[in-house]
Amino acid sequence: MRVLVVDDDAFVAETARRVLMSEGWNVAVAADGVEGLQRAVDEDFDAIVLDILLPGLNGFEVVRELRTHQVWTPVLMLSAKDGEYDQAEALDFGADDYLVKPFSVVVLKARLRAVVRRGGRERPAIMTAGSLSIDPAQRVVARSGQVITLTPREYSVLEYLMRNKGTVVSKHSILQSVWDENYAGDTNIIEVYIGYLRRRIDHPFGVTSIETVRGAGYRLREE
Question: In total, how many domains does the chain have?
Answer without folding.
Answer: 2
